[in-house]
Design goal:
binds cytidine-5'-monophosphate; 9 helices
Amino acid sequence: MRRELIVAIDGPSGAGKSTLSKLLARALNYTNIDTGAMYRCIALAASRRDIDPADEESLGRLGRSVRIEFLRSNGGERVLLDGEDVSAAIRTPEISLLTSRVSACLAVREAMVELQRRMGEKGGVVLEGRDIGTVVFPGAEAKFFLVASAKERGRRRYEELCAKGHDVDLAQTVSEVEARDAADSAREHAPLVQAPDAVAIDSTVMTIDEVLAVMLEVVRKRRSRAGFSENDGGERP
Ligand code: C5P
């Protein structure tokens, strides 16, 4: 039986992945899976348990034992860690930096990738992260690599944090975003890298609507290549 597509959106922090993946999933009537939130949950759990980010064995055990769920409602998407709503707690600048360290651990990655494959294998999903098109679903029918200049990405992250009431400094936010990307790109396991068959989009001077239109066009073509017609399931009228 034909299944709906798997869509992968990878790229560095602040390139617009979260916003676009939510919008794209909504437009296609697909499920959105924020894989960064999953790594953030592990970092939060590790920090609460005082686990040293260099202690790979304990991190691996943690990665295999916690329960991560996405709760979707009209009020948006919430992330639950062992039943607790941690949507806000996982987004602090401290947890962002810790996540980059924790996500470099192979055992953590293996546990998360297994979960992500289980969540997405039936198709009809948009997954956003760093290694979706290269490692998690190398066979994904539509892959995007979303980038933007470091300055612009830092500015977006700064505004996001300010809007949530965090007391942050612009220059420091830009340098934290750069540090996180450098670590994500240089790590040994599943580094941030563009899949050869991904469509690269630079969102620096594009509006969200413009990027979304490009993505929808690519997905429409891939769906019709996979044998779906415009009126089949998936897309909302
Ligand atoms: O996307 P987000 O900024 O929430 O990701 C937080 C961190 O999680 C990234 O900086 C990266 O270290 C890690 N991550 C990852 N692989 C993914 C998604 C996120 O290593 N697929």
